[in-house]
Amino acid sequence: MTVEIGLLGTVEVRLDGRALDIGHARQRCVLAVLALEANRPVPVERLIDRVWADPPQRALITVQSYLSRLRKALAPAAGVSISHRAGGYQLSTDPDRVDVHAFRRLVAAARTAGTDAERDGLLGRALDLWRGPPLAALEAPWLDTVRHGLDNERLAAELDRTDSALRLGRHADLLAGLVAARAERPLDERVAGQAMLALYRCGRQADALEAYQRLRLRLADEVGTDPGPPLQRLYHQILTADAALAAPAPAGAVPPAAATVPRQLPAAPARFAGRAGDLAALTTIVEAEPAPVVTISGGGGVGKTWLALAWADRHAGRYPDGQLYVNLRGYDPTGDPLEPTVALRGFLAALGVEPHRIPAEPDAQASLYRSLIAGRRMLVVLDNARDTGTVTPLLPGAAGCTVLITSRNRLTALVVGHGARPVCLDVLPTAEARTLLAGHLGRHPGTGDGPAVDALLAHCAGLPLALGIAAARAVLRPELPLSAIAEELRATATRLDALDAGELTANLRAVLACSVRALDPPAARLFALLGHARGPDLGTAAAASLAGLPVAAVRALLDQLVAANLVQQHAPGRYRMHDLVRLYAVDLGGQEPAGAGPAVRRLLDHYLHTAHRAALLLSPHRDPLPVGEPLAGTTSAGLADLDAAMAWFGTEHLVLLAEIRRAYEDGYDRYAVQLPWTLATYLDRRGHWDDWIAVQRTAVAAAQRSGDRRAQAQARRLLANGYSNQRRFDQAHAELQSTLDLLDGTDHAGRAHVEFDIALLHDRQGQPDQALPYAQRSLAGYRAAANELGEAVALNAIGWYHCQLGQYRESIGYCRRALALAERTGSAYGQANTWDSIGYAHHHLGEYGPAGQAYRRAVDLFRGIGDRHSEALVLEHIGDTLDADGDPAGARDRWREASRILDDLAAPEAAGLRRKLAAVPRPRRTVPAPG
């Protein structure tokens, strides 16, 4: 295994490239001190002094604890160990495994190297070890001193390498970096000399002499001295064009002074609007990089070319040696992409090379191109590139040039292989889209029609091409009110037809079709299938199910779609599409009737089987559904525990709501019934009762349509629970009565569930005397069905209703029996509710100590299962007990905590609890359903 200890940047340890967890910042300080002194013992007193400016009282014990943890963290790394020696603690390892020591060894070797080429290679390897500021994010006075020293060592190595590179004739590559270094260290004579030499060799003698004069004046003003003899000697050599300063010119190069100055940029866009952040990002990159290559990527019609040309127009003065432009036609609907050799020949002609002097071989053309622009300050715009291979031959080989590349592809290989800096464009925000639309409309009479303008903005969804097409339709048909244009775009089924200005380059469907044609066939098929997904986004496993492919295979296809800017990966493993791109995907997917193919079945199976697994993790004692076997090719998300289940539901919440609607609309009644069942526990624990009611209404309608009485009973009962949670008692009673009518008389457990819910309804209406008989009947039903968990919940409910009737001792007896059954069945939910009931009874007996203990047990259990609503209700009860026991301040704290949760959930109890913060009413109690 390869072990690397990094100090030249953040302090880290990597094992075969994988970072080990070496703890918090102070523990990393201990490792840094030992690594800087690798293979030498560090006395513990010195170790403490180097880690803390003001050591804590128990510093020795703390350091020993850190060392113990570091030993455990480093245990898998063979060849690295921490041991206690007579002289202190020692980190033992090969010094080359610590980047600081490897850096110093390479620098020392470079200073004795025989040739500049060897010296340059050694120093390059040494400087490549640096990842950022040394010992980053660590704070200690001693480390600050070490950090300063290391920075000086790096600077010396950089200067040595620059000297070697200048002797090797690489002045053009170095120039931009040296100019930047001179600005950072304006009084450094060595840097100034290197910059002057590079400027001179690049044909900029006047700039080199001016640089000397600026330094001379600054030294005189700030230090009171003149430049040293070496710099004065260089100045006179440049002034007299001393032949000793000459370096061999690259083969085929044309002296910069004799070269043609091309001005090929098209006119800047007249109606450019917004993009201030993207323009600023471009400027920041260009100013920070010696030879910046910037990729501007985004979907078709998002405004990539406009951004590049707008920036170029505003910054043309940076490039006195000219600007080159070519449209590579990577996604041109009227023809094939432009070959790089054709683009190269055009650039060479623009640079003044006569046609008969252009080499025949592409590599020779590229070499001549790079030679001609070496040392020049030029802007190169490569517009509408299809892939990295198209643009690579067109990249300059030296510093001083800026390259802007626009593409629908993210050109990842260019970022990885050539250090390109990406700028990814999204659609325009509403305010910028409004400004752009107003510019396109000009004096159109409809610009004052606010609702029509708002509708156009909504239908175009911030896509600049769509805004331009919609505005063109309005301008070309001034007799029509703007509202009529907006109406043409309103229907999603025909919106793409309306976004057609009659030409291929102004037709949104044609623009998107070019992007899809550039994909591999499997990726194009996946794009069309994505049109069948109804939610706001989807995960990798869902996409794999839709395509019927393994996750690894579909992830690679999704990467292609992301790179082509047809799909966005807005979160790890989550993908979405722009609204108009989604319409085009639906358009393509419409070749297969909606809901008719196996792809939709696999997608629904993915959600049903994963949600069913998640539901049983949240509530293990629910009776599972008969979900059957998923269609071949379906992938379910792997969920290991309750936390994973809650997180999955949280991520997929809105997606599941959309898929339930689709299942009903497309006639997949089984999914429309079963998916709402899987959501019940999650929606209850998060307080999403509006969603609960909506999906259960859908489930009822689907069950009625399919004629499944049992499924309809289940859905009506869950719908009643939703109404009950919102205090819509009449509707809840009606649904529960309908449920009883649907159930067979021999279904003891089903009827017990309903009778329990009726009891709960009466309790929430403040009618414990009417609730008690229903709870007793539910107990009998559960016993007849041999359902111990149901029996436990019913016993707890009976105990609770006895509490409400003032029979507290009798209540505790019922609840203790319920608790024993809940513990035996392993139901954390049943135990939590029962402890709440016991606490309530003790409270009203004046036994505040036992009451508080019981309530705290309930809160811990509810938190453990993620039931925030019940947690808040028990926190309210704890506040009641504290208030009754003479601790009003503690009571208010608990009520405030409960109030925050109930407000987050928009729970109906929130208003009453806010009133309680001023006056204490009688506490409430909610008894949840057993299944």
Overview of this protein structure:
By secondary structure, the chain is of the alpha/beta class. The protein folds into 5 domains: 1-168, Orthogonal Bundle (Arc Repressor Mutant, subunit A), CATH 1.10.10; 258-424, Rossmann fold; 430-509; 523-705, no CATH class; 787-916, Tetratricopeptide repeat domain (Serine Threonine Protein Phosphatase 5, Tetratricopeptide repeat). It is 60% helix and 6% strand. It is built from 41 helices and 13 strands. The strands form 4 sheets. The chain has a 5-stranded parallel beta sheet, with helices on both faces. A 3-stranded antiparallel beta sheet has the order 1-2-3, with no helix packed on it. Strands 11-13-12 form a 3-stranded antiparallel beta sheet. Strand 1 (3-6) and strand 2 (12-15) form a beta hairpin. Helix 1 (25-36) crosses helix 2, helix 8 (189-201) runs antiparallel to helix 9 (205-222) and helix 23 packs across helix 26. The longest helix is centred in the N-terminal third of the chain and has 27 residues, at 141-167. It is globular.
Rg over CA atoms: 37 Å
User: Average pLDDT, to the nearest integer?
Assistant: 85
Judged by helices, strands and strand pairing, the structural class is: alpha/beta
Distance between the termini: 53 Å
Q: Characterize the main sheet.
A: 5 strands, parallel
Approximate shape: globular
Instruction: Work out the strand percent.
Output: 5-15%
With strands numbered from the N-terminus, the spatial order across the biggest sheet is: 7-8-9-6-10
How many domains would you count in the coordinates?
A: 5
Number of strands: 13
* Total of DSSP H or I helical runs spanning 4+ residues: 41
Low-confidence stretches: 248-259, 921-931
Quaternary: single chain
Helix content: 55-70%
